[in-house]
Design goal:
By secondary structure, this protein is α/β, with parallel strands linked by helices. The protein has 18 helices and 25 strands.
Length: 534
């Protein structure tokens, strides 16, 4: 089969990779040199006798493992036979959390392609960057959010799904295809997905993860911390384009034969209602949602719920205690990153210490280090360093690769302290990332959009503390001469940002100022803006 070498060539030099540990757990050491993670998670499920078990639930829909396998196989046929996908080719996926999106995700991997899943909230500008960076020539998109995808994929092929079987749609192409497929024989260390994360420079960074990485995150945090069963029903709010959502709603349940509930709109009211309706047992969402859900439980029966997992931003102790008081459930906190693929520090059950993130998940090691990479004493604040079976491999970005990986350790950009019992306590971010309601938002990216508006002379965008969202995006703006900074302009600037990039990134607060704090060399001092916000 013809192979596209792009991903192999775009990997950083091996000497810049973090140390990858596969000898810490027997599950990790047992992975064969050739492996396709879609086959291990889906085909093997049917082979184990789980074919008639529920794999996915959605409003008005129930898919068994056998039905999902058949749909994924048909999509793989379409990709190879009708759309010309070759091994290693990247396929952009765009849509809300639906069974068809999951079927497409597995279909791409079974065909030997590389998944690049994107959020439906992203606009043309953001999608175009992703398309160019990953050199994507093919996209599968929900027809309801196809316009931006079409605009970003100039020169590429875009196929719609969710059209009701219209000619040329994915469903129409699938109709004549068989339900079985000769799966691509991929290497375990071959790129399976490229996940894009916002960066402090304002440009998205693609993180490259192998087939064995996908299995590794299934065999570490869920197996040793969450401990799911085949009877569990997973639910949550994160889009599948977030690796937090991908793991929590699809990969982790599939590893044990459980079911995942897919919500197109995972707002707190919808999430509470769906937990009751689907009798969900395990919930994945951000602290912001857990805070909001505490006030929405009156008259709701969520007694089926037994575990709650939080990530995406630090879990405030007040939220932990409020949730426990209302439901009796102790939230499992965790820290993960797109670079690491999923959670690597956490704790559950009696091992939870409110306010602490937890201890390294089996399979991972973590340290707190100073600027020279030396361990700091317990109780002192330093930079978090971690390594394990997954790690950072940026897509064609040597500068950021050198900044993220030091002496084989992933430096996550978080400040932590470790106590004498080995628990890690989050302190702050060490970069310019804003974490709001679980979303990672790059301040410089928002700045670059605001600077396109004719009223803006210069600006600085940072996070400000917020009781509901953890942080909110706050823009400090110097206006051009003669422009009045009034409420009407605030709304205009907010709407302008919403139209250019994902709406969740817009500045909820705008401060008009005469000048921005800068160094003698003209560099913006964002830390002073953060101090002002605090």
């Amino acid at each position: 089969m013809t192979r596209d070498p792009f991903c192999d060539d775009a990997l950083p030099p091996r000497e810049l990779w973090p140390v990858m540990r596969y000898d810490t757990l027997p599950e990790l050491a047992a992975y064969p040199p050739r492996m396709n993670c879609a086959v291990e998670l889906l085909d093997r499920a049917v082979e184990r006798g789980w074919g008639e078990r529920t794999a996915l639930l959605a409003t008005g829909a129930r898919w068994t493992y056998r039905e999902l396998l058949a749909a994924s196989n048909r999509i793989a046929h379409v990709l190879v036979e009708d759309l010309g996908l070759v091994s290693g080719g990247r396929v952009l996926l765009r849509g809300a959390n639906t069974p068809m999106l999951v079927a497409a995700w597995f279909g791409v991997l079974k065909a030997g392609g590389v998944v690049v899943c994107t959020m439906p909230l992203l606009r043309t500008r953001e999608l175009a960057f992703t398309v160019a960076k990953a050199r994507i020539g093919l996209a599968l998109t929900d027809t309801r959010v196809a316009a931006d995808c079409e605009a970003a994929m100039i020169g590429g092929r875009v196929v719609h799904y969710g059209t009701g079987g219209a000619p040329g749609s994915l469903e129409s192409l699938m109709a004549a295809k068989p339900a079985d497929f000769a799966n691509a024989d991929t290497r375990a260390d071959e790129t399976a997905l490229i996940a894009f994360t916002s960066g402090t420079t304002g440009q998205g960074k693609g993180t490259m993860h192998f087939h064995r990485d996908v299995l590794a995150i299934c065999d570490c945090f869920p197996r040793y911390v969450l401990k799911p069963t085949p009877e569990d029903i997973f639910i949550g709010s994160p889009p599948l384009a977030f690796t937090f959502g991908l793991g929590g709603l699809v990969l982790f349940p599939f590893r044990v034969g459980a079911a995942g509930v897919l919500l197109e709109q995972g707002t707190p009211p919808n999430l509470v209602r769906a937990i009751e309706d689907f009798r969900a047992t395990v919930c994945f969402t951000a602290p912001t949602a857990y805070r909001a859900m505490c006030g929405l439980l009156e008259g709701r029966d969520i007694s089926s719920l037994r575990e709650c997992v939080s990530a995406g931003e630090t879990l405030p102790r007040a939220t932990f205690e409020a949730r426990e008081a209302r439901t009796g459930i102790r939230i499992i906190d965790g820290i993960g990153s797109t670079e690491m693929l999923h959670i690597f520090i956490s704790a559950s059950g009696d091992a939870i210490r409110p306010g602490a993130t937890g201890r390294p998940v089996p399979g991972y090691e973590a340290r707190v280090v100073d600027d020279a990479g030396r361990d700091v004493p317990d109780g002192e604040i330093g930079r978090l360093a971690v390594r394990g079976p997954t790690g950072c491999r940026y897509l064609d970005n040597l500068e950021r690769q050198r900044a993220y990986v030091e002496d084989g350790w992933n430096i996550t950009g978080d400040s932590y302290r470790r106590d004498a019992d080995g628990y890690f306590w989050y302190q702050a971010r060490t970069d310019d990332m804003i974490i709001s309601s679980g979303y990672n938002i790059s301040g410089p990216e928002v700045e670059s959009v605001l600077l396109l508006h004719p009223a803006v002379q210069e600006c600085g965008v940072v996070g400000a503390p917020d009781a509901e969202r953890g942080q909110i995006v706050t823009a400090h703006i110097v206006l051009r001469s003669g422009v009045a900074g009034d409420a009407a302009l605030v709304r205009e600037l907010q709407d302008f940002v919403k139209a250019e990039i994902a709406p969740y990134k817009y500045p909820r607060a705008i401060v008009f100022t005469e000048a921005l704090p800068r160094t003698d060399t003209g560099k913006l001092q964002r830390f002073r803006l953060r101090q002002e916000n605090a």
